[in-house]
Amino acid sequence: MGALVEIGAEIIECRACPRLVAWREQIAQDKRAAFRDEEYWGRAITGFGDERARIVVLGLAPAAHGANRTGRMFTGDRSGDWLFRAMHRAGLANQAESVSADDGLELTDAWVTSAVKCAPPDNKPTPGERDTCAGFLRRELVALETMRVVVCLGTFGFDAALRHFGVRPKPKFGHGVEVVVDGGPILLGCYHVSQQNTFTGRLTEPMLDAIFSRALTLAHP
């Protein structure tokens, strides 16, 4: 069994955070009306993609009616629509849609994951929950031996990467900010693909395309 497969199996079975376990399971029962006939995943979410990836996309946590429903990160919600359209345009995904875990989506040279593995209430994990999940993220990033760039979605993903790599002093997050980790990858800040950013125009598709273009350049020096 490969390291990432082993880590993924442990993530799926994890019940370490009572509040998150209760929330993800409640959401799986109290379904959104549009998905009332679907069976929700309702468990923790693993990373997925190319195990030889040079580009890692690091988000915050699974969405309650997205990944917590479909069982795959950024799948079945509008954030994923934006992310995978951009990754498809960049040549990192074989298709632009991510609607279900068995929809045929495949990533090339990219791995998509999150700092926290369960959907949190109000999309806000506590510091304790974040720290409990940090061990999974640490092992995941160590196993991605060819990683050269981490695209950090939002302040939470950026801070999680800074903590993991022990970057001090702490740089300020910003869209397009680059942090070179001594002996490690380059961290590339990106506004999160949340509707709060995409609906308001804070993040546009050209801005997202520019991030992945830069990530490709950094990953293939």
Describe the global form: globular
Radius of gyration from the CA trace? Answer: 16 Å
| CATH architecture classification | 3-Layer(aba) Sandwich
Output the number of helix runs. 8
Question: Residue-averaged pLDDT, rounded?
Answer: 97
Q: Which structural class should the secondary elements be placed in?
A: alpha/beta
Question: Can you put this structure into words, describing what you see?
Answer:
- Helices cover 39% and strands 11% of the residues.
- A six-stranded mixed β-sheet has the order 1-3-2-4-6-5.
- The protein has eight helices and six strands; from the N terminus they run ααββααβαβαββαα.
- By secondary structure, it is of the alpha/beta class.
- It has a single domain (3-219), classed as Uracil-DNA glycosylase-like domain (Uracil-DNA Glycosylase, subunit E), CATH 3.40.470.
- Strand 5 (178-180) and strand 6 form a beta hairpin.
- It is globular, with a radius of gyration of 16 Å.
- It has helices at residues 3-13, 18-29, 67-70, 78-89, 127-143, 154-165, 195-198, 205-219; strands spanning 48-49, 55-59, 110-114, 149-153, 178-180, 186-190.
Annotation keywords:
221 residues; alpha/beta; Uracil-DNA Glycosylase, subunit E; 6 strands; globular
Summarize the topology.
Elements: H1 3-13, H2 18-29, E1 48-49, E2 55-59, H3 67-70, H4 78-89, E3 110-114, H5 127-143, E4 149-153, H6 154-165, E5 178-180, E6 186-190, H7 195-198, H8 205-219
Parallel strand pairs: 2-3, 2-4, 4-6
Antiparallel strand pairs: 1-3, 5-6
Helix pairs in contact: 1-5, 4-8
Summarize this structure briefly:
With 221 residues, the chain is of the alpha/beta class. It is 39% helix and 11% strand. It has a single domain (3-219), classed as 3-Layer(aba) Sandwich (Uracil-DNA Glycosylase, subunit E), CATH 3.40.470.
